């Protein structure tokens, strides 16, 4: 049975109960999420051939420090980096390192800042130099999946409507939806209820109610949906080594739809792609 609670009365841990946030909470989330979106904007000119992902990681840390925010991933369940950088066939949770990016790569950069106790969570895909048309198409399809999922958010609908919108479009475009990872509630906690599946049916899942805050972050593969986690315990890759892409926004359910907290101030929600 799905239960809901006023977020101000809920304990600061994931109990499986869905929190409903007030206007002050939405204001706090706007600030945290806009800081994350600004960082992702600033990364755009840095992502180019020859730049190592640990340089990107260090930039994320320093940008956060300059603005009074901490990266939420640092020391989260033993993770030692400030961000996740997932290249080509890496689905998610790629660990930054000293290896330079190469012409034609695609990379997802996932940033979450904690600002005044609120978590701003978002990710974008970045093309590295000139990329092949197949990779460009995957990025276009994946971003459209995200936006179709967001368009399904409204009070009274179920979270399965998000998944159905994403799955229907992805599969019509001959791509597949990763099922091993999902979106999640977010706010005072990094990961909270409910889970937001990126596949399913519109009549499934918890009912969306005004005040809910969660991420939508579809992972779309050019090949089959199956993934495996490498021996580092974090890096998830496609089993068939096909390209994978992901875009992520944090949204809050409003009286008549939703607010996207992590929209790019510079209009760079699809960096490197035509508008």
From TrEMBL:
Name of a matching Pfam family: Peptidase_M24
Q: Which GO terms describe its molecular function?
A: initiator methionyl aminopeptidase activity
Enzyme class of the recorded protein, top EC level: hydrolase
Sites binding substrate sit at 93, 191
**Catalytic reaction list:** Release of N-terminal amino acids, preferentially methionine, from peptides and arylamides
Binding residues for a divalent metal cation 2, per the UniProt record? Answer: 121, 184, 217, 248
Q: What is its EC number?
A: 3.4.11.18
Q: Which UniProt keywords apply?
A: Aminopeptidase, Hydrolase, Metal-binding, Protease
**InterPro entries tied to this protein:** Creatinase/aminopeptidase-like, Pept_M24, Pept_M24_MAP, Pept_M24A_MAP1
Boundaries of every Peptidase M24 domain copy: 28-255
Query: Taxonomically, which superkingdom?
Result: Bacteria
> Can you tell me which residues bind a divalent metal cation 1?
110, 121, 248
Q: Which cofactor does it need?
A: Co(2+); Zn(2+); Mn(2+); Fe(2+)
Q: How is the cofactor bound?
A: Binds 2 divalent metal cations per subunit. Has a high-affinity and a low affinity metal-binding site. The true nature of the physiological cofactor is under debate. The enzyme is active with cobalt, zinc, manganese or divalent iron ions. Most likely, methionine aminopeptidases function as mononuclear Fe(2+)-metalloproteases under physiological conditions, and the catalytically relevant metal-binding site has been assigned to the histidine-containing high-affinity site.
What family is it from? Belongs to the peptidase M24A family. Methionine aminopeptidase type 1 subfamily.
Subunit (UniProt) = Monomer.
- What the protein does? Removes the N-terminal methionine from nascent proteins. The N-terminal methionine is often cleaved when the second residue in the primary sequence is small and uncharged (Met-Ala-, Cys, Gly, Pro, Ser, Thr, or Val). Requires deformylation of the N(alpha)-formylated initiator methionine before it can be hydrolyzed.
What is this protein identified as? Answer: Methionine aminopeptidase
